[in-house]
Each structure stands twice: as structure tokens, then as C-alpha cells.
Amino acid sequence: MHYSLTLALALGTVLAGQAQTVKPHSSAALLAMQVESGSPAPAPAQTYRLAGRVFDPQGNPLPGATLLVKGTNRVVSTDAAGNFTLDLPSRTPNTLVAGYGGCEDQALALGPNQLQLNVHLRPILADGLDQALRVGDFAPDFDLPTTAGTTFKLSEHRGHPVVLYFYPKDGSSGCTKEACSFRDQYEDFSALGAEVIGISSDSERSHRQFTAKYDLPFPLLSDNGGQLRKKYAVPRAALGLLPGRVTYVLDGEGRVRYVFNSLNEANEHVLNAKTILQGL
To answer: Choosing from 175, 221, 237, 270, which is the catalytic residue?
Structure first.
């Protein structure tokens, strides 16, 4: 009996000592243990940023040039100083297609994670022109049929500014957006003394339907066969799959005062043209 009591007391003392040495870990300690045990590190960034600048054939910084990521619908435009930035997939060879009105589209292969790119565009030598139209050049004269059944001859509209905007196709989403934007701000253009003229290769019938559907207050010209596009050196876009979207602002003497080329920034054609006219 005496020995049993002594053994029980000794065993209780041992168990009590063990209980004192086993303490619960705090959440911070558990987290530290997990990190030390080799938990996975955060995944690296999946994109990187490319920065660059686009220059015209004369070596001047070029605003409004477009850069398309080949194989995608991702497009950016250069700012007023010709600069651009673009986020691209990391560790992947990418190809950009750079373009501007009157210049050849250029496909540019990038190295993985390439951070800088300068682009020097080359002019298109269009029929009837020694070089692509530049600011300060006289716009070539032409005459084309209008939606009103008359003929528009550019040289007969001297004495006031003219906005010529080339667009791909009646009824497409971007072209509808652009036409309606010109329509909604048409009074502003009229107040600035400017005419707005839309030009595409669609038929006169298509133009009449497009005009009636969206109540367009300005004429659309039918450039059947795209001869005027060639004369004005308007490039194709989206790797040559679509006619380009280019706007020319002409002053009262018929000189080119502004050129803007962007397939996707339809509203920018309207806003930029109005800004230029306000400064004439």
C-alpha cells in the first residue's frame, strides 16, 4: 500500500513536468515553421513593360502611330512626343506591327523581356506621289461621288478647312462610333468653319443606307477600288487585313495641317481634328 502510493505520486510528478514543457505554438510561430519548411514562394510577374518611341521617315517623333501585338487585338498609339508603353507577356517572343498613315507597316520581332524599342518608319511611295503626305504638303485634288448624288471636288472647297477622314467600312462598330462622334460634334466643326468628309470604298448605295440609319449631316464619298486611298498613301491596318483609318485636316489653302492614323481609337480622330482646327 505504501509502495503503491509512492509510485503513484512519482508518476504524477513526471506527467506534470511533461505537461509544463508542451506549450501550444502561436499562429506567428506556425507561419514561421511553414516558411522554414519550404512553402512555395510568390509567383513571378507574368508581364513586363516595353517602352519606346516612333519616328517618321524624316527622323521626327511621330504622334498617333499605332503598334499592334501580332496575333492579338491589343493596340496602343504613340503620344504627342511619339512615345508609347505596352505591357507584354514575360519570357515570350512577341512581334509588334507599327503603322502610320503614308508609311509602310513594319513587323518588329522582340526578344524575351525586351524593355526598349525605337521604330523608324519608312514612307509608302504611292501612285502620283514622290513621298507620303506630310504636314505642309498640298493635298492632292480629286473628285468622287457623294451620298447626295453630286460630285465632290476638293479644289472647289478652298477658303475654309476640310477634314477628310478615311474609314474601313460602313456599319462596322468602329466606323459607326466614329461617324456618330463626328455627327454629335458636327455643330462644333461648323462653328470652326470646317467641312467634314467621310471616305471609304463602300458603294454609294451603302453610303446612303449608312447615312440614313445614323442621320449623318455630312457627305460620304465612295472611293470605289481604293484609288484615292493610294493617292493619299493611306496604309492598310491589322496586318493588311483591313483598310486603314486615317484623318487629314486641311487648311483653307488645301495644305495638310494634321495626319492621324489609328484603327482602334475612333473617337480620337474626332477630338484631335477639332483640337487642330481650334488652333488654325
So the answer is: 175
Does 108 lie in the same domain as 67? yes
Q: Count of domains in the chain?
A: 2
| CATH code where residue 83 lies | 2.60.40.1120
| pLDDT for residue 104 | 74
Q: What integer pLDDT is reported at residue 45 of this predicted model?
A: 60
* pLDDT score, position 147: 87
Residues of the chain with pLDDT under 50: 1-37, 39, 43, 126-130
Q: Is 180 a catalytic residue?
A: no
> Beta-carbon neighbour count of residue 276 at 10 Å?
19
Q: What is the pLDDT of residue 132?
A: 65
- Residue 212 domain-assigned? yes
